Amino acid sequence: MKDILQVLEDRRAEARLGGGQKRIEAQHGKGKLTARERIELLLDEDSFEEFDMFVAHRCTDFGMEKQRPYGDGVITGWGTVNGRQVYVFSQDFTVFGGSLSETHAQKICKIMDMAMQNGAPVIGINDSGGARIQEGVASLAGYAEVFQRNIMASGVVPQISVIMGPCAGGAVYSPAMTDFIFMVKDSSYMFVTGPDVVKTVTNEVVTAEELGGASTHTKKSSVADGAFENDVEAMAEVRRLIDLLPLNNREKPPVRPFFDEPGRVEPSLDTLIPENANSPYDMKELILKVADEADFYEIQEDFAKNIITGFIRLEGQTVGVVANQPMVLAGCLDIDSSRKAARFVRFCDAFEIPILTFVDVPGFLPGTGQEYGGVIKHGAKLLFAYGEATVPKVTVITRKAYGGAYDVMASKHLRGDFNYAWPTAEIAVMGAKGATEIIHRADLGDAEKIAGHTKDYEDRFANPFVAAERGFIDEVIQPRSTRKRVSRAFASLRGKKLTNPWKKHDNIPL
Amino acid sequence: MFKKILIANRGEIACRVMKTARKMGIKTVAIYSDADRHALHVKMADEAVHIGPAPANQSYIVIDKVMDAIRQTGAEAVHPGYGFLSENPKFAQALEAEGVAFIGPPVGAIEAMGDKITSKKLAQEAGVSTVPGYMGLIEDAEEAVKISNEVGYPVMIKASAGGGGKGMRIAWNDAEAREGFQSSKNEAANSFGDDRIFIEKFVTQPRHIEIQVLADTHGNAVYLHERECSIQRRNQKVVEEAPSPFLDEATRKAMGEQAVALAQAVDYASAGTVEFIVDGERNFYFLEMNTRLQVEHPVTELITGVDLVEQMIRVAAGEKLPMAQSDLKIHGWAIENRLYAEDPYRGFLPSIGRLTRYRPPEEHADAGSAVRNDTGVFEGGEISMYYDPMIAKLCTWAPTRTQAIEEMRVALDSFEVEGIGHNLPFLSAVMDHPKFTAGEMTTAFIEEEYPDGFDGVTLHTVDLRRIAAACAAMNRVAEIRRARVSGRLDNHERHVGEKWNVALQDVDFDAVVSADHDGATVMFDDGEALRVSGDWTPGDTLAKMVVDGQPLVLKVGKISGGFRIRSRGADLKVHVRTPRQAELAKLMPVKLAPDTSKLLLCPMPGLIVKVDVEVGQEVQEGQPLCTVEAMKMENILRAEKKSVVAKINASAGDSLAVDDVIMEFE
Q1: In its UniProt record, which GO terms are filed under biological process (chain A) (predicted)?
Q2: Which of B379, B581, B584 best probes binding to A when mutated, by most A CB atoms within 10 angstroms?
């Protein structure tokens, strides 16, 4: 009996060593942790329960039968993050470069199926050279099996991808279909075709980092939602995100004890809006001062900065925030910001996370670049996302809410539950100057008359009261009491039930 | 007594004057410019009158506008504060002409003391010690030697037209005097076309010590002892204290009596300050007399218990001084630290913008200690570029100097200012500087101790351990809270362990945290145990802890896996990790910050007005490279060293953010 126990321990020890000490050291040499070390950092201490430790590939071509390491290049299992269940797979670069074989894929599929069945998030840690070429189509089939599960799990359990090494070719499409992609700066990259192929086909010379590094994907392509300094920070920040997300689409977002008075008054918000209507201010100050403990988990911080998206807590419970940022492009909506915010709103709606919207939007960005790029359909994505969302929606207009962009930004007309405005709000079709020049075209030559008309228009529309008279604004609130009002609004919406008509699925303008 | 007074000033001093006026039951009138529409002094006043655009020369110092405000509100007297119109005899005359009382000295005194030469002459006549020297023209080197001997070495040989160190020599003996005279003369002739030379005593180890005087219109005058203001940066006072750690009783008395004599010689009536320069042997020499309330007056108030503003108002109303010289004792020790909106990490460049957070330490006063903060700003207010960058004067008082310094350290650590750059870390550094704590400073203190500017404080292991212990205990609270999120798997909750590793500055400590209901004991791996208590909860930006019986106040910010801690002038990233996390963290590559020595970075958000160089051009040290306009102020950026411009990334009209790369050098 003792021997058998020893055999088990020996086998485990062998499995834990992955591709061997030398490769582990090589991995460390690149500033990367091993697949198991990453899991250790991601999960609560001693909470990891492994599946399929002894799975090995079944390939017999190209001499592969001589090398059948345990685990087959991916560690899978479940564990807890602050006591809440999650499923995880972590590709092991020390074993066949983390390449995906049929059995490697099967291991991933197994825990994804479990996650779906038991209602817990899936966290995928990607560090893989790509397909196991020796296995040919079996490997491709493996990818597709994973893809199909990503698709089925979408909107059922949160799926988070962390790219912590190479992720190229077909492999990118699994993370691409998950809810969030995070990368590690300087040690990860993602692309469909690598620099060599790019050079052959298009003659472009580009490094892997330039083509698909963290900077590219967080700033230019928006493929990634965030980037972290190193593996340790990445795992800590994924834990932080998990703390904010419900485990599945049947649960309410998590609540944790909080130490911040929901009625906290912030007198400094009364002076947030500058005297000059064209001066910018930092919307993040409002977000931080409204949030519990000034804690904000920003999503896509470096992309389309004219809109801010991310998670805060109010009374300990997760709330998704969407806010125009007047500091960038005057906070206007454009293709990028609409896409960014639309995806975020849909994530929140899928997982029952209430949405708080702060509005200061002068309209949509004009220009051929935008029109040729299809701003009509991209802008419609955000409109669609807000309109279909059935979660509690609270909106605060701080300053400008002009034109169609007013409608888009979680207006009352899109089933907003609470639509508040600060006294500084201006809800109108457009700015006073533009409006006057259209209404009083005949007087355009007379600067004095135009100035008078502009003043009239401002007096009439550059305030929240016209909208409030019609009930489009539920209440005009003091900036200083925003946290209190918003917290109470969400509290009152805890029992909200709203369902959309039955449909197979909608047809959002993709 | 007056029923209503107008305060012809802004900022903290306007608020300061209003406090006393309110205490005395006098109504107050504020004046304000466009930039101060929402300023604190406007909110505090009973009435406020708008007097014009933001620049002071179109508002606060336009006598006619102030006079209009007085007429409009019927104020009976005017307190001018400091700066602006406070030492302008024309303003005092204008008030006199309208029959409005000036809460300050008579016009004659302002005029007499306003001129450097006249004031020095008057001082000499009143028996005040002045810097010995020869003001007449000196013919040749031999005469220079003769005069130098009369004055006594060391002497300063100066060009009449001199400035900026040019045509200036210090001589310690005859040979140097002879040589110095010649070279000064030549340099002066070349630089200024005026080779007149004079000689005066060179004051070694100079300290700036000033005497506060108070006089009434009935011929009474007293001195309220001294203030030492030696810690200055480019003639701008930074730290002041009362009394001076340097004076002995005899010197104090001599200086005080001379100051009173001078005040009486010019029929002074109000609060005034006689400034002296004091050398290493406690010889003191008259510099000038300030005929107004000084910025640093609170330290005198704290050690004498006299409200100087109240006395100024009473004197202006014709009352007699209620105290005699013998009533004025020095009680304890007071220190003032001036909080400037200047970024110490960027060469003390003025910083403007919105105060997103402004939480001064709580004011208090009891037998053992006092904290006082004179301020003119508030959270959510705007720091504009139009006025003085000083935003607050933090003062502490305690029975002894050592205690007052300790009070100040804690008060500085408790002072939260965000949104703008400010000198709090620098002030903390000064409060911990051994020369300051020993009281051994001269006016060259900052220049000598921080020759290359200020780049933060490196803490000693003892301090780091105390911070590490506090962070370990705080982290435990944060982790336990994290582990209490809803949706946990019953019976499989996370257990928060006791063993932690705290990494900060360039060290890390292994520690065991044992918590109980009063706090925690943090045991380091070498066996040292520190007891930590405090009521910090996650999200608090200020942790008022007690570590090993001593208070420790930390400003707490968020970073991944730990805290950003600011304390005692240091700005630390503190990572608190489990032993396993720490082990793995050690495998992480150290990423070096990009080398910016060959880049010209934009020091502030602003607009490029002009680029003075082109690609390939060789530039010399100090040569202008480009001009950045920020808030209507033009800042010329200059080459730090000789180099060649490799690339220019910005052109006129571009608006840039802080740290944007303007140009690159080879």
Answers
A1: carbon fixation; fatty acid biosynthetic process
A2: B584
